[in-house]
Amino acid sequence: MAETKGLKVVVIGGGSSYTPELIEGFIMHHDRFPVTDLWLVDIPEGEHKLRIVGQLAQRMVEKSQLPITVRLTTNRREALVGADFVTTQLRVGLLEARIRDETIPLRYGMIGQETTGPGGMMKALRTIPVLLDIAKDMEELCPDAWMLNFTNPAGMVTEAILNHSNIRAVGICNSPIGVYKWLTSLYEVPMERIYAEFVGLNHLHWVTQVRIDGESKLEELLANRDGYSAKNVPQYEWNASFIRSLGAIPTYYLKYFYLTEEMLADQIESSAREGTRAEVVKRLEDELFELYKDPELAEKPKQLEKRGGAYYSEAAVNLMTSLYNDTRDIQTLNVRNQGILDFLPADACIEVNCVVTKQGPIPLPVSVMPEAAKGLIHAVKTYERLAIAAAVSGDRGLALQALAHHPLVTSVNKAEPMLDEMLEQNKAFLPRFFAAQTV
Amino acid sequence: MAETKGLKVVVIGGGSSYTPELIEGFIMHHDRFPVTDLWLVDIPEGEHKLRIVGQLAQRMVEKSQLPITVRLTTNRREALVGADFVTTQLRVGLLEARIRDETIPLRYGMIGQETTGPGGMMKALRTIPVLLDIAKDMEELCPDAWMLNFTNPAGMVTEAILNHSNIRAVGICNSPIGVYKWLTSLYEVPMERIYAEFVGLNHLHWVTQVRIDGESKLEELLANRDGYSAKNVPQYEWNASFIRSLGAIPTYYLKYFYLTEEMLADQIESSAREGTRAEVVKRLEDELFELYKDPELAEKPKQLEKRGGAYYSEAAVNLMTSLYNDTRDIQTLNVRNQGILDFLPADACIEVNCVVTKQGPIPLPVSVMPEAAKGLIHAVKTYERLAIAAAVSGDRGLALQALAHHPLVTSVNKAEPMLDEMLEQNKAFLPRFFAAQTV
Amino acid sequence: MAETKGLKVVVIGGGSSYTPELIEGFIMHHDRFPVTDLWLVDIPEGEHKLRIVGQLAQRMVEKSQLPITVRLTTNRREALVGADFVTTQLRVGLLEARIRDETIPLRYGMIGQETTGPGGMMKALRTIPVLLDIAKDMEELCPDAWMLNFTNPAGMVTEAILNHSNIRAVGICNSPIGVYKWLTSLYEVPMERIYAEFVGLNHLHWVTQVRIDGESKLEELLANRDGYSAKNVPQYEWNASFIRSLGAIPTYYLKYFYLTEEMLADQIESSAREGTRAEVVKRLEDELFELYKDPELAEKPKQLEKRGGAYYSEAAVNLMTSLYNDTRDIQTLNVRNQGILDFLPADACIEVNCVVTKQGPIPLPVSVMPEAAKGLIHAVKTYERLAIAAAVSGDRGLALQALAHHPLVTSVNKAEPMLDEMLEQNKAFLPRFFAAQTV
Amino acid sequence: MAETKGLKVVVIGGGSSYTPELIEGFIMHHDRFPVTDLWLVDIPEGEHKLRIVGQLAQRMVEKSQLPITVRLTTNRREALVGADFVTTQLRVGLLEARIRDETIPLRYGMIGQETTGPGGMMKALRTIPVLLDIAKDMEELCPDAWMLNFTNPAGMVTEAILNHSNIRAVGICNSPIGVYKWLTSLYEVPMERIYAEFVGLNHLHWVTQVRIDGESKLEELLANRDGYSAKNVPQYEWNASFIRSLGAIPTYYLKYFYLTEEMLADQIESSAREGTRAEVVKRLEDELFELYKDPELAEKPKQLEKRGGAYYSEAAVNLMTSLYNDTRDIQTLNVRNQGILDFLPADACIEVNCVVTKQGPIPLPVSVMPEAAKGLIHAVKTYERLAIAAAVSGDRGLALQALAHHPLVTSVNKAEPMLDEMLEQNKAFLPRFFAAQTV
Question: Transmembrane region positions (chains A, B, C, D) (predicted)?
């Protein structure tokens, strides 16, 4: 291949506790993805954490003896100049905002979750404008770079970027690779012998095919409904006859929709017992940063696995490697629909299998579309598009419509005061909503 | 026009308390719709009521001095021979079944309603096979006749007939004509000067345009949200800012979706106070039949208007008249989608404006499709199609999927025992579900 | 109805020989379409003809004793102020340009016709920019007016207006009403008892249903293939077994596609014998204008019927009357596809049955789509869209692509010099193509 | 991988002169595609050629020292039992029929070609029933086998198989791999560094993207229009400004459409000079079989390359290898549309890039769809579907409609006698057309 210069990668939200995973990935795959300039960027408020994580990253690279330079900065525009790949893993409003996302809805009798339901909408309203600003910088400073967006709600954020900027962006989540990892351990085969087909949206997918060496394993997986789970979603057993007649494996996030009552009861109970998931994560992160400070530490600590974002790094490095090398392998990503799901708009962002080429991921037609899932996918996508439009415009009416049409919102009459409370509490992060009023 | 013979009309469920409305309609419009043979058909269990209503019908016709023969029978096949129009207004399991539809879901903490939610599904499971039997008879005995299906859930029943028989059928509901009547009284103009555009499904529509002599009245109607209501749906005021940002007038049935919590609380309270709606209706019907018995009575009694099916007769006679005379006027009907709503299957039954020609109603493209409504329409249609498939096949798994994907069902874990209870209690009317087990 | 003021109608190309037909229509239907201000507009070069026709129009109105004022002007903008309806019936480059459209292609061995094939493209390239200028004036001077576009190629011109301006426009052709007239005379019934369904594009439609009082007459019409014809298309008998297996009645313009060789031979022979159709028309028009000059003449002369545009006036007045009165009757018009033909873009202009409401025509879904016709419709529409894009941009490459993809063009190698000759000869009317070069 | 048994491959039309190419491919790729049982099947009339080619195949295998058994048979059903892969490369009516396909249309002034135009239709009418018989045998004898259909017209034959049988089939052509080979030699890079995107139908495709290591080469290829060519299509230079404004590289078969006049003149001239292409091929084949008889020959002779089907073997072995090994690489194949081209039916067969998985090829959404090509693709597909329906039903009316709607047929009046002559001359191979008449 003609390209010989090394690659410049920018990690926005570089002070995240996840960063060591990513560093490990870059080190392990350096032969196929020769990053030479690695920039960790964070906002001034996060500089302290950036310093701690960044120094660990530098120690990890040093130990690897690879020609990678790690740069730490709070000047995003400086970092972006001439970048080849930009990853985004940020949290507008930090964990404090997440605590509010998880608690306010609960007070109105509705699911309080970081990416799903009213909490997810608030996160979207805060986050989309920030990501659009980053995209605008990229249009100017590195127009050919790929953005890999990990920032949640990843599907909505990616759709906003794809439809409101001109950069090249892909949304990515660790949930699909988690399914692969579960299957590799269940069947004791390497990932490349597995064929799994996903359909749906981010945090709202169904697995409709599982094959090992071409042979279907779906029926036996449905019969044995234990399924896979995730750290940040309570472990609930699926109803066996429901799963069998569904004929597909739902992601654990679908428990918020299929088992709303139970999940809500669990949230109320566990937040009383141990605080919200955000508070649990906050304690975990504090512990992690204590570990990261250790000047002897030069590798990813084991404890990071408890954190919930398992395989993020692997998913990210796989995608960058395939984009760079034109590998044309199949990965499950968040991309423009382009007619794959014929009941959704062509520019809606969906989560499906893609072939990753140098020109970007090409979504694959789905071979199985569970009829039962169509309505729910469309209902959530309808909410998502209304919420994206609200985030971009700062229009309260659109935000109210988004809530009113979310399947987990049980009363428009309650949605309105809940919205007002959420907007008020997030005021500092919602200039598009509040700008007009201050005039 | 060449046709000179009079028309044969068959009313299945002729013993219904609504029948006098229909008779009144046939009498008033006899010049344009010259019915000569009118058959009222009911099942043997309904013969007593058929007799009472039928005799009233005969007195009404006699008084009109029109050349109409009214025949009463419990032999459906005899009645159908050579019919031109067949209307269906029946209730499998009578009001007793409706009481169960309205009470069982309430015990599981979900909306209990005759046509919407789990109760509506039970009604569909009981009703669809009976209507398919009628359609089969029609294929044989009057293959060119039109069926006007009033039987609820009218959209689902009509979709089942259109996709599982070869007869010509249209679904019809009094809710759209109710909107027109509300507008005629509000603006004091005749119906023909009003243009209202409907989009959605039966009992799940939005009015997206209202024009008087071409001038839009929508904004002022949205600002004044009082809206219209129906006897069988509790009167709730819509949230004003919700209605304004929605930009369309939702049918009162949409309160079950947009105000689920409030409607559920109201159901619990009112069923404790006065019994379910079914029980209220039962009392009203008993009173009506007492009136009907009066041998002096030869017209529709005023009290019928309390019953809830206002304008049914007018809607039905309008449709028959237009089909017969190739009138090509616009009516809101339940017909095959055929691409009008591009996100739904072509063979889904939808409720939209149609031009009524002699060859049948042709659905009109919608000029406004509220983005916010798409997901909910698709979610409910997904449930409907699963429930229709369950009704046709007697497959419990499909019925469970239908419930699991209904927006008003809040837990699959609760849906399963609720389904079992509902199936068990309706056993006598569900041969397709229970036949296999008896073998 | 509240509206009491009379209507202002502007006829652009008012000096056309067709105008007396239109005047007759306004007079006959004045009770339902109360025009009070009628402006006939033409370009300065056409002032002489405008004077002759206009004075005949004034005599016709005077004789009618109706309160209509006829105004003649060459100041289009003055005429358009506050107009309610604008009709366009103009010919950029006059009959001289049509002669070139009909003769240049013949020299390259291809069909030379005013609206079909390379000649039609040249007409489109000359005409579209002029109509867009009129539309621009209307946006400013009468934004709520309806434009009824008769100007050929009517489908392409209308598509250009609909997609490149904000005015309300409908394309209209006398060919569909001609089918109705043929059927009324064949079956001796009034038009309102006929139901004919059209599908396709302007000058490229198929009639797929013909019903009298609801009864199908299609099979007998196909068996008797004589069909209807038009003054400006040579009379050729259709091949009987072709028409029967086609199962639809093709418009006479389809002979250019289905009988290309014979039509081409006929054009070569008849243009040698009597000149092109344009030259024949020119002689007819000269005769008509001689008649129009007669100060005793105060009605449409019989000879006008030879001209070829039979029923234009009736079609136009019908459409204006229905738009004005919200009649909601069915007319065959050129409107936006909006999904009616699912294989064409939503914004393509098609010719189909529409319900005419006060808000405009609503296209009706087609009940029969002949599979055999799809490819030809799409091929011609592809050409049309390329040609429209060429007309708007002045891009020679697009014009070459349009020709290369026209089904009647048999060689790209010949298309290129033919295009160059046509552009050169129409230079005076193609500022968008030649502007850049003069700089 | 668990599978250890060798593979059984059946070559139907094994007596073809192409077979040595295929044998060479199986030998070269035996490590990745371990065929052990290779059956060459032909009809009794072809037994002599089967013997000659088969013995050469056996000598080639022997020389390779691989564990492959080559079996020769005229008993197709015996060969198919338990097959893993079946390839079809047959010619119903032999080269004599092809001579008729190429000469009859010429006499009516139309293109005479083996796969394109009226000749291609006749080939389809003869061939489709035979392939459906093979598919029926496969349903019974090897239901899990893959059929690789090379038999022309490959797109139409494959569509017929996919829609009228239950086997797994892919259509394959050497034309796309020919483009890759041309690019490898032009840019001196291996195939895997090239990314080319194809869109269209078999023998009617456009190349819309060419990238080497991700960098676009399309513009420079369009500027240098020499293009690639094929042995069986005369070499004509494309018109330079046409190719540039088209923005895609058309297959050489598109010259029949874009340069109809020139191609027709060339056919008339060359068939007078050297006979039809069929006759040229016949002479070539006779020479090849003379060579094949040489008992010393144990490899593919060089002269085979003149024959016209270059890279057939490579394309076939690539596809079988990828299906067998779940390689998930991109190949250009003829498969069900499934919404990829949204203007064609979902079950139409199209030629596009696919990812080849063990479950079969998955077509990739096209990233560029040239607007100019849509109409022609749809026109040819319309013809193809009518012709397939005619082949399956034996309906002369459908065959006439197919011709009438083929872009290369210039007169329905000529199409009818041409059809009659072609049917009559192919009577022996058209039982579905003539069966009814003999009763």
Answer: none
pLDDT at C275: 83
Cβ separation C362–B364 shorter than 8 A = yes
A245 touches chain D (CB under 8 A): no
From the list A375, A381, A400, the residue facing B245 with the nearest CB is A400
Catalytic residues of D: 253
Q: Which of C259, C386, C412 sits opposite D259 (nearest CB)?
A: C412
Specify the pTM.
0.94
Least confident of B121-125, C88-92, D280-284: D280-284
Sequence length of chain A is: 439
Chain A environment of D330 (Cβ under 8 Å): 328, 355
The secondary element (H helix, E strand) that includes residue A10 is strand A7-12
Q: Are A245 and B401 in contact (CB under 8 A)?
A: yes
Q: What is the CA radius of gyration of chain B?
A: 21
What is the strand order of the sheet D85-88 is part of?
D69-73, D35-41, D7-12, D85-88, D146-149, D168-171, D330-336, D349-357, D360-363
Max CA distance (Å), chain D: 64
pLDDT tens-digit profile of A109-149? 999 999 999 999 999 999 999 999 999 999 999 999 999 99
Going by C-alpha positions, the residue among D433, D407, D112 that lies closest to residue D275 is D112
Q: Does the residue B363 lie in any domain?
A: no
Within a domain: C197: no
Q: Find the CB nearest C355 among B214, B326, B364.
A: B364
Instruction: Decide if A229 contacts A252 (C-beta within 8 A).
Output: yes
Pairing of strands C349-357, C360-363: antiparallel
**pLDDT, tens digit (0-9, with 9 covering 90-100), for D382-417:** 999 999 999 999 999 999 999 999 999 999 999 999
Counting as contact any 3 or more CB pairs under 8 A, the partners of C are: B, D
Q: Is residue D176 domain-resident?
A: no
Token reading at B118: 């789990």
Assigned domain for C251 exists? no
DSSP per-residue string spanning B374-398: HHHHHHHHHHHHHHHHHHHHT-HHH
Contact B365, B208 (CB under 8 A): no
Nearest to D172 by CA among D311, D32, D329: D311
Q: How far, in Å, CA of A151 to CA of A13, rounded? A: 9
C365/B367 Cβ within 8 A: no
Q: What is the pLDDT of residues A276-317, one digit of tens each?
A: 788 888 888 899 999 999 999 998 888 777 766 678 888 999
Q: Does the pLDDT value for residue D293 go beyond 90?
A: yes
**pLDDT for D278:** 82
Looking at chain B, the whole-number percentage of residues with pLDDT higher than 70 is: 95
Radius of gyration of chain D (CA): 21
Q: Given CB atoms, is D357 within the 8 Å cutoff of chain A?
A: yes
Tell me what ipTM this predicted complex has: 0.94
Confidence of residue D228 (pLDDT cuts 50, 70, 90): low
Would the pLDDT of B377 be above 80?
yes
Range of the domain at B398: 380-438
- The domain tally of chain B equals 1
**Residue B305, C-beta contacts closer than 8 angstroms, at least 6 positions apart:** none
- Which residue among the candidates B18, B180, B253, B324 is catalytic per the annotation? B253
Collapse the DSSP code of C104 into the 3-class scheme (helix H, G, I; strand E, B; otherwise coil) and give the result: helix
Domain with D316 in it: what CATH number?
3.40.50.720
Q: Is the pLDDT of residue C385 over 60?
A: yes
Q: Which of C180, C228, C252, C253 is catalytic?
A: C253
Would you state the structure tokens that stand for residue B244, as one six-digit string? 């304004």
d(CA D116, CA D96): 17
Q: Residue A258 catalytic?
A: no
pLDDT band of D327, cuts 50, 70, 90 = very high
Reference C178, options C370, C351, C395; nearest CA is C351
**Chain A contact for D363 (CB, 8 A cutoff):** yes
